[in-house]
Amino acid sequence: MLLVEDDVEVAALTREMLSELGFTILHAASSTAALGALANARDIDIVLADLMLPGGMGGLELVREIRRRRPGLPIVLTTGNPEATAGPGSGEFALLLKPYTLDELWGALSVR
After folding, report:
1. Are 5 and 29 in contact (CB under 8 A)?
2. Where are the beta strands (DSSP E) in the chain?
């Protein structure tokens, strides 16, 4: 599992939740780090990425690039901004609104 989250506190909580669900987590705090993890041929079976990432490449651009590189890799986007759901809400990617419960996280990841 690749977790892409720039907020340290949110990343720590999400890692804890993912561990509780049985996932092995590789954390990347930026789009660049996430693409580096994929390039290093790591065994990544699903991506959970924040929609709002700092730097030149936001979350939506990142997951589109991941999809280009690994077409079958399941991807779930997260956001704390309900207004941001208009763009990726078209069904291109699963979207999970923050804050989410353990059950909601499991549901979003298990349907992928």
Report:
1. yes
2. 2-4, 26-28, 47-50, 75-79, 94-97
Length, in residues, of the chain: 112
What does the block give as tokens for 36?
Answer: 């580096």
pTM greater than the 0.70 cutoff: yes
Confidence of residue 55 (pLDDT cuts 50, 70, 90): confident
Tens digit of pLDDT for each residue in 72-95? 999 999 999 877 655 554 567 889
* Structure-block tokens of residue 21: 């669900």
In order, the DSSP letters of 59-76 are HHHHHHHHHHHSTT--EE
Cβ atoms of 54 and 6 within 8 Å: the answer is yes
DSSP code for 101: -
**For residues 61 and 64, what is the distance between their CA atoms, to the nearest angstrom?**
5
Report the pLDDT value the prediction gives residue 89, as an integer from 0 to 100. 47
